[in-house]
Every structure is written in structure tokens, then in C-alpha cells.
Amino acid sequence: MVTLRSTIRCSPVKTKVPESLKADMPANRWGKILGATPVVLTVVATLLAGLSSGEMTQAQYSRSLAAQLQAKAGDQWNFFQGKKLRSAVQRSALDQIAAGGRPAALDHASLVEALQGTPAASVIEADGRTAAETAMIAGTLPARPVSAPPPPDLQAALDALESGGVVADPLVRLLKAQPSALSDALQQAYADVRTFDEATGPIGKAIDLVERHARAVAGRPGLARDVIAARIAFHAQRYDLEAQLNQRIAFLYELQVQASNIKAERHHHRSQRFFYGMLAAQAGVVISTLAMAARQRNLLWSLAAAAGAIAIAFAVYVYLYV
User: Fold this and answer.
1) What is the number of domains present in the chain?
2) Cα separation of 231 and 254, whole Å?
3) 51-72: average pLDDT
4) Which whole-number Å values give the CA distances from 31 to 181, 292, 298, in the listed order?
5) Residue 15 belongs to some domain of the structure
6) pTM of full prediction above 0.85
7) Which of 48, 83, 273, 303 is deepest in the core (most CB within 10 A)?
């Protein structure tokens, strides 16, 4: 369940040094530093408030993106389930045909003889076999598209996702080393689906053409039955392979969802740290303002300077390393 956290709204302390306090401050370098301290710390607090708010906005964006990616992953799982169901239906139909007598294996000579003079004859070649004839006779589909192997961390994340293991560790390494690896793999997976569709689409149409004319061949009632069985077997294998391609896309989307959630957690963590730094800077503003009004200023001003230094150092650490 993806939730959105509310944006932290920070109102930095606005500092204006009263004229009476300015007149009371010494007119030396110490006095100038003392007068500038609350102004500098106010600027620092304002910058940290902006960074905190920006990080929280990034966290909310990453959460929203994760929700969108999860919906896309759900679509691919629906495709996967639909293809597996279609394959099961095709195999059930093939079993029903076999219950009335096992279909005979098709051969090149019988197809050439039966379809001679029909538009379906273009599917059969005198020498060699077309892809459609190969699918009907040998039951062989075009090879599954083979793309370049994924990076090791991506493969480790996919393996962990399929087995229910820990995905975060290899995924974090992948995001640091190759930020675009997931999107590249997803584009390649979609390209594999298109390649397979382009290879099997014409074969399916050719088999349908052969079946239509085989039904009309006089004196060969068994031929149509054999072609129908070959067509069903072809589509069952095709749906199985398409389901595997959709499953890979779904897994990649699932990894993108987790990657987006990891980014959201990181931005939220940084937002909190910047907020703490802003609080330290605001404390320095208050203390330095009190120091100007007090007679014993050294201790208070030292505390203000320490708070400001801590706020700045903490902000630099969060920005660079968190």
C-alpha cells in the first residue's frame, strides 16, 4: 500500500536586530561578528528549510511513481495469466481431439497434394519448408528473442525477486553503478515481445489459411482434423512463450517499484536530517539574539556559533553522504 507523507512546512526565524541593540554593541570586529551571526544563521536556516521541503517533494514524487509502476506491473501480470489461461484452453481442446483418435502427423507430401491449386499452396514450398509449414509439421516455433545478458546485479535482483529473497541489496548496488540499467532492460524486454509477435503473427495467419482450405478438400476429412490439431498445438506453445515474455516485463516493473520506494525512503531520510539542521540553525539565531541583549555575551555567542557550525556541517554531511 503506497502512502504519501505530508510535506514538512518550515518557517525559519526572521531576524531583525533592534537599533538599540546595535548601538549597544562594540564598534570593533567582535561587534560586527556578533551582529552578523543571527543574519547568517537565518540564511542558513532558510536554505536548510528549502532543502528539507525539496527532499520531501522528491519523496512524494517517488511514492507516486511507485504506485504508477505497480499498476503497470499488474497489467503485465494480467497478460501473463491471460496467456497461460489461453494456453491451457488450447491444450484442453487438443486433448479433446485426441480423445476421438490421435491426430496423424502432417507431412510435406500430403500437404502439397491436398492444397495444390488453392490459395493456401503459397504456404507450402516445393523445396524446403516455410516457417508456417515447419510449425505445423515439426511443431517448432521461431526461437525466443535472445538479448544481451543483464548486469550481474540486475540478474541477482531478478533471481531474488523470483525466489522471494532480499532484493534491496543488489538493487541498491545496481542503482549506484548503473542508474539506467532497469529502464534499458525494460525497453529490451518490450522489444523482445514485438520481435516475437512479428515472427509468429504471419505464421498464425498462414496456418489459419491452410486450415480453411483443408476443410474444403474432398475425400480427405482427416486432413482438416490434423491441421486443426497442428494449429492448436502451435498456439498453445505461442501463448506459453508469450506468457514468459510478459512475466519478465512484470518482474522488471516490480523491481522499478522497489527502486522507486528505495529512492523515496532516501529522500524522506534526507528531508528529516535537513529539518534537524534547520532547527539547529534556528537555535543559533535565538541564542545569538539573546547574546546581543546580555551583558555576558561570550558564552551565549559561543553556543550560537557552535549551533550554527553544527547545522552547517550536518547539512553538508547529509547532502554529500546520505
Assistant:
1) 1
2) 34
3) 94
4) 56, 9, 12
5) no
6) no
7) 48
